[in-house]
Design brief:
Blueprint (H helix, E strand, L loop, with lengths): L1 H16 L4 H8 L5 E7 L12 H9 E10 L5 H15 L5 E8 L2 E10 L2 E11 L3 E12 L1 H11 L6 H4 L8
Antiparallel strand pairs: 1-2, 2-6, 3-4, 4-5, 5-6
Helix pairs in contact: 3-5
InterPro entries: DUF4252
Pfam family, one: DUF4252
Length: 175
């Protein structure tokens, strides 16, 4: 009986692993020289609570971390660009990623997606691309966030004292 249960668990684990997800994509691409990866926790944002409104403080409490993965286009990796961009777009077509808004068109644009329910969002995903520079995917992970929290968090980030050196690798992606 134990062998059957163990076998079923193993088979279900393997079956689940085959589905593409942004988390798996991030893990796979983190070590690639074509990608730039940055992980940021709330402590790295260096936001002093006293400079935030109560609304901004509450929004910040729902935020856990942010993962950034950017493909910086160069002469050497032009052939990989379309393939990697297609992979990300395919992952974002999954029904668990609900589109919140989209802007831009043609060779550049951006979109915001979320995972979860309107009043209990677990993850916001920002995807932006510019054909001559590359693309970036930002995962904003949190606990019971909502779209208003996300917008409030963005306004709170303007009051952060982020070490700009940490973001230096992203320069040139979206000029």
């Amino acid at each position: 009986m134990k062998k059957i249960v163990l076998t079923l668990l193993l088979v279900s684990f393997i079956a689940c692993e085959k589905e593409p997800s942004l988390q798996k994509y991030f893990v796979e691409k983190t070590e690639s020289t074509d990608f730039i990866s940055i992980d940021m926790s709330t402590s790295m944002l260096n936001i002093k609570p006293e400079v935030l409104s109560l609304e901004q403080q509450e929004a910040l409490k729902s935020f856990k971390k942010m993962n950034v993965l950017a493909f910086k286009l160069t002469e050497k990796n032009k052939t990989k660009f379309d393939g990697e961009q297609t992979k990300v777009k395919e992952i974002l077509k999954d029904e668990k990623y609900q589109e919140l808004m989209k802007f831009g068109s043609g060779k550049e644009g951006a979109a915001v997606y979320f995972v979860g329910k309107d009043d209990a969002i677990e993850e916001f995903v920002l995807y932006g691309s510019k054909d001559e520079n590359g693309f970036a995917v930002v995962r904003v992970l949190g606990d019971k966030m909502n779209p208003e929290d996300f917008m409030t968090l963005l306004s709170a980030l303007q009051k952060s004292d982020i070490d700009r050196e940490q973001l230096k690798p992203l320069e040139g992606i979206f000029k």
